[in-house]
Amino acid sequence: MSATAQTPIIPIKSSSEPPHVIAPDAATIYATRAQRFDQLAEGHSLGDWLRFLATITRAQHAALQSLPALALPEASQLARTREHRMPPLPAQSWPRDPLWQTALREIAVAIADAAPEPAKKDLARLAGFDDERLEALAGRVLHTELYGDDVALLPYVAAALQVVWTAGAARLGASRISALDVPGVCPCCGFLPVASVVRGVGEVGNLRYLHCALCNTEWNLVRIKCSSCDATEGISYRHLEAKGLQGADAVRAEICDSCKSYLKIVYQEKGPVDPVADDLATLALDILVDEAGYARSGPNLLLAPGG
To answer: Is 0.85 surpassed by the pTM of this model?
Structure first.
């Protein structure tokens, strides 16, 4: 297994004006992702873990479907965020609805039977936390402080927070989410992207969209541009040469020599890819790029790298 350099991909202009923002579909986002986790698990060396992630993702789907309607910012506040080009549901300052803890409890109960023994112990510990400790963990996730004490608990907390922010983004819809002056962060919540997707069908054919690690909103960014520092030179690509590793040919790491960062790109033309699932199924690519001296620019919140 190795990573090889690729020549830059030449962008192809769309025949029509593409949407800048694609809001998540609350009815399908997690159900489709769970199916992709199951598909990627077949024959994978990390198959058991990927299947457990599918279970978590199905629990997210169920929690999202049962979540009551969230209170969104008032129209005047939304207008101000558009005027000042700010995210309407900022991860670090939008008041967290207590429903996120309800979602956390629902997810924990739903995945308990399928959890491996270490995860069962983590879930038992989490169940004993009071509201204050849970809010402290949530703050760490939303500030991307994915290390330190109780780090193994953070993916479960993140899963619940993702449900709430995805619900908010879906309810807002793309029409109320505007472009930001900082193109590398989510225009809905200001969080970092987990990966990007090159879409291969319809009006967004062959265009790249960054995918938010928190709220699942997608936003357009031109090809061959670093999502972290905006550099357009010194960009190259790595991919895995691994026979039998399902989905490996659909994922590349876009690396930037200017800021020494990388973020993965998944290619929809290769099949039913998912930026979160395909990212976690290609951790070997992260290891190889990390060993080459590049640091990942956006987190996958279902993985606690400090654990």
So the answer is: yes
